[in-house]
Design a protein that fits this description.
The chain is built from 14 helices and twelve strands. By secondary structure, it is an alpha/beta fold. The relative contact order is 0.14.
Length: 378
């Protein structure tokens, strides 16, 4: 469609606004006609609210799905992944295979998780199996490290329960604590040891404002390749891709896939000492605040890539039909999952891909790396 995209946002971040301005898009007010709205989670609630919401036209898109919380609330994410596993088991899918100890072989990427107080008895049973373990308590719907604490005694749970009744892509980065980790119980309350959130670490004495306690993912990869080897590093990143694809598939049946919506998710993944990745949570609104120069560059490029996919060629959206990004845009990305190809292949496609067998290619070669764009996992 001809004409300039008209944009509005209620998140005043330079990495957003600079990207819009670079494209020559026109800023308008919320009450004017707009085509593209990058909005906060609270605003998306109002847009799709039964009482206060309104109907989006075919030339309007927004950056959240109506019920994105099915993936981005910690409790619902776990619930949906567990349901996904059960359904695959009922279908007899090879993806749901377990080892001799009853653990999933291919879908074991979420730490043992309980929702309290509903799962309290199950939690106590698991706690007593490993009484020396330390557990992390995370509120379901909060961010930036708020309300998180660690426990190693059941009495601490009871105290929390009483108190709570009266209280209220390839690019990416990895975050580190400013204080070296120790499992010592004497450091249980030291959040500078346990939480990597910048909102917490920036208050520590050892916080470095130049690098902000962050590495780029590419630097992490180089470090791991040099210290642990290329083979295990490749396996780690393949498993991270696997986690992302399988978590999205887990919520696909319950997500309201509104044609006016897209998402830019922030995946929090922790890597243990055996280089196994674990999915901690998925953020609906990953922080766009830049704490360092490299941080700003990374987040600017993230928004640039997101807009290239969500608004192909910078044209005014047309939600009456599905428009795929042009090939020259897709050439910069690795396709982790091709639904059409997966549906046309056999049920063991995922396992062939994960074991390193040939899965075929589609879409040519990635422009930068020269590697085939692999189409992986059903």
């Amino acid at each position: 469609m001809a004409g300039k995209v008209k944009w509005v946002t209620d998140i005043e971040k330079s990495v957003l606004i600079n990207n819009f301005e670079k494209r020559g898009w026109i800023q308008v007010a919320e009450n004017e006609d707009w085509n593209f709205y990058w909005m906060s989670v609270q605003t998306i609630r109002n847009v799709f609210s039964v009482e206060t919401g309104y109907r989006l036209s075919d030339d309007q898109i927004v950056n959240h799905f109506p019920n994105h919380y099915e993936l981005t609330r910690k409790d619902l994410m776990v619930k949906n992944i567990k349901r996904y596993r059960r359904e695959l088991e009922k279908e007899g899918s090879p993806l749901a295979e377990k080892d001799e100890n009853g653990k999933y072989i291919y879908l074991d990427f979420v730490p043992v998780t309980f929702m309290l107080p509903a799962d309290y008895n199950l939690f106590v049973e698991e706690f007593r199996k490993n009484p020396s373990s330390t557990w992390i308590m995370k509120p379901c719907g909060k961010a930036q490290g708020k309300g998180i604490f660690l426990i190693n005694k059941l009495s601490q749970i009871k105290k929390w329960s009483r108190d709570s009744k009266t209280s209220s892509y390839k690019l990416g980065f990895c975050r580190f604590c400013t204080v070296k980790y120790t499992p010592s119980t004497s450091e249980l309350d030291n959040m500078f040891v346990h939480l990597t959130n910048v909102a917490i670490q920036k208050h520590g004495d050892d916080y470095n404002h130049i690098h902000g306690g962050k590495w780029t993912v590419s630097n992490l990869r180089l470090y791991l390749e040099s210290t642990r080897g290329k083979e295990v590093t490749n396996k780690l990143f393949d498993e991270i891709h696997w986690i992302i694809v399988q978590s999205l598939k887990a919520v696909a049946p319950v997500m309201n896939n509104d044609k006016h919506c897209f998402e830019c998710y922030g995946y929090d993944i922790i890597i243990d000492d055996k280089l196994k990745p674990w999915l901690i949570e998925v953020n609906a609104s990953p922080s766009l605040t830049s704490s360092t120069a490299n941080d700003r560059i990374l987040k600017y490029n993230l928004i640039n890539d997101t807009l290239n996919i969500a608004v192909p060629n910078g044209e005014i959206p047309d939600c009456k039909w599905n428009k795929s990004p042009p090939k020259e845009v897709l050439g910069n990305y690795e396709v982790l999952y091709d639904e059409e190809m997966a549906q046309s292949d056999g049920p063991d496609r995922d396992l062939r891909s994960r074991s390193g067998q040939s899965t075929g290619t589609k879409g040519g070669r990635a422009r930068d790396s020269g590697k085939p764009i692999l189409t992986t996992w059903k």
